[in-house]
Each structure stands twice: as structure tokens, then as C-alpha cells.
Design goal:
The complex is a heterodimer of chains A (about 190) and B (about 220).
Chain A (H helix, E strand, L loop, with lengths): L2 H10 L11 E6 L6 H10 L6 E7 L2 E10 L2 E7 L5 E8 L6 H14 L2 E12 L2 H8 L10 E11 L4 E9 L4 E6 L6 H4 L1
Chain B lengths: L4 H13 L5 E16 L2 E15 L1 E20 L2 E12 L2 E15 L4 E12 L6 E13 L9 E13 L4 E13 L4 E12 L7 E14 L1
Classes of the chains: A alpha+beta (about 190), B mainly beta (about 220).
Chain lengths: ~190, ~220
Amino acid sequence: MNKFTILIVLSIFHFSFFAQQKFEKEYRVKPNEIPLKSLQIIKMWNFEKKVKWFAEESNDGKTFEAKVVYKRDRYSIEFSEEGQILDVEKKVKFSELSSEIQRKIKENLSKKFKKYRIKKVQIQYSGTETAIYNEVFQLKTTHERAKINFEIILKAKKENDYALYEILADNKGILIKELKFKQESSLNLEF
Amino acid sequence: MKKIVPFVFLFFCVAKVYGQSDFDTGFLPKVVLSTKVSDKMNWVHSAESRAIIYDDKYQFSHNLLDLSSILSLKTNLNQSFNFGYIIRFRNSEIIHRTFQHYNFVNQFSSIKVGHRLAFEQFYQTKKQTTFRTRYRVSAEKPLNGERVDVKEFYIKLGNEYLYDFKANDLEIRVTPNLGFKASKKDKIEFGLDYRLGRFLNNNTKNNLWFRTTWYISID
């Protein structure tokens, strides 16, 4: 068997070599694969633009996500497998947050990281369906208000090395969750 | 399967079009193995073979074998410098090559774009050392969803420009690929590597290679 044949055989029969891993998958789905309840909510909310549906599966379970642009803002609406609304995330610029929140978040980030750069900010609304609706469609009601958190993606360093972090800050700017991303390999774009 | 058909179709179409000119075609299977040395350093090895199926006439012959060893230093989250060596066995010839790469990768919402700037030095017994510089841009996009998960397909498009200082000439490469992320540790890509050589000297040479590349990362 020459070298060329060996390479071809290796390429074809490699799939079974690396089998054990944590299960995590995100993929596009059609509206007919979505729980009816979540479809009804999105229909009722009546966004003018096209809604794209995604499913996310992991060891923790399965969720569905509707992505839509409304009044030039990007929204992600997350549902449970049963179709219950979990939260809504709205992509914003950090400078669009109130100056008080900006100041608080910056102050708390500086305590945690030597250096940081904010790459993405999302306002996260959670609570009842009505409360979330009031926030998304900016209804000025005092009855039901959603709980507001800020999800921030950072490039930051604690010691010497930069890493990507996902931070969750509450509506007072206090950091309540920190998750370090594992760096994805870009081997196939480098070699 | 439907996604693969256009690649195969394109392969045969281009082979037909260039059938009458200075044209070679064949297979380029490659394996790239990356092992982690430390948080900032990887040691990457690769083996690439070339088999010709058309060179003026249809034939099947093994043409060359490249073996490389590269030290990859991560300088930032999305940047790296690579220093490597390739030994090429072509018929009875042996060509040594050293190279330096600078890479940076940008992640957008669903597209990942990689840039590579490289300098290469070629050494061969009884021949003058030659130099080449090259720049490549590649984009990777999942075929389903916004990121490439395990057991998912993606497309990768590459465009590269290579300048040979001695020949004072340019080669342009276009590389469409269909990729499959088989596990967290490995990806396999099938595609074409179209090369338009001697671009500046009005004596163009066309090569079309059918590529299979298996990328393996061991942390």
C-alpha cells in the first residue's frame, strides 16, 4: 500500500476514533418543529420581520430560540421544550445603557479584570409573558415589569492572558455570573 | 449528499475546460495533527501527498510527498505566529522549505474569517535559495445554525495569492471546501484547490486538485 492510499484510507475511516464528548448542538429548525405554545406567542406578538427559529440541545436539555429584528433591534426569544417563554435578549450598544449602569458595570469589571474590552451587550428580560411583552414593545405600564439583567461578552485578562468571558450583571450593575469561554480551534483556517 | 454534487460537477467541468491547455489535475490528501505543548504553544505536523490523474494525458501517478513540522505560538486570543519546516520528496528530488506565518482569525455572528500572511524559503542541493510570500483569506460558515457543532457540515472558501521573487510571478488559488466536524477534536474537509499559475507572464498554467484534509487537535 503506498503513502497516498494510506492517507485516503485514514481520511475515510477516521470517524469512529473520537467518540466520547459532551453533547451540545445548535441548529436551524422549521416552524412546524416548534412547540405550538411558543409559535402562538410569536404569532400574537406580531413582529413584522421574518422570525428565524433555532433549537439548542445539550446535556441539560433542549430549548428553542426565535431570532427577529424589530425596530432595528435584534431580539432572541428563548423558549423551553414545552413552549414556555424563558427570556428575551435584546442586542444593544454599551453606550445605550444608562450612564449610572455603565458606571457601575465598569467599576465592577475593573475590580475583576486587569484589562477588558466589551464586545457585545444584550439586555435580558425575564419574568411573565406579559411582563416581557411590556418591555419588548415598550408599553408604559406600572403593573408587570420584567426582571432586567445585562449579558456582556468581554475580551479580558485577569493575570497575563486574554480570554473571552460571558458576564451577567443585574439591574444595579452587580456581576452575578461569570463564564470563561473555551477557545475554539481554528486549525483549519491556519493550516 | 446533495451538497457534495456541485463540487464533483465543478471538478469535472473545469477538467474539461482546461483539457487542451497547460493543465494538471489530481488528488491532494492531507492530514494535519496539532498537539498542545502549553497554553500558548502548539506543535503541528502534517503529511500531504499528491497524485496526478491528468498531466497532458490521463495517467495515474504518485507525484510528491510533503512532511512538515510547525511550532505555533499564540500571541493573542485570535492571533498566532507559526515557524515551520517542510521536506518535499518529489521523484528523486528533495526540497527543504522553512516558513513563517502570521495568522489572525475574526469571529462574526456566524462566519469565521482567517487571514494568513506567510514568507517561505526554499533550499535545494546545487540550486539557488528561492523566496516566496503569500497571503490567504479563508471564511468558514456553518450550513446549519450559527456555529459549527459536532456532526455538522460547513463550507469553507479560501483565496490565496503567492508571489515568487525569483520568477517574479504570481499564483492565485481558489479553494472551495465542504467540511464536517466529526468530533470536538477533528474536522474533515473535501474540496477543490484551483491554482492559476504564471499569472504575470501571460503563460498561465492551470491546476485543479481534489483535496481531502483531516484536521486533528490533541489537547
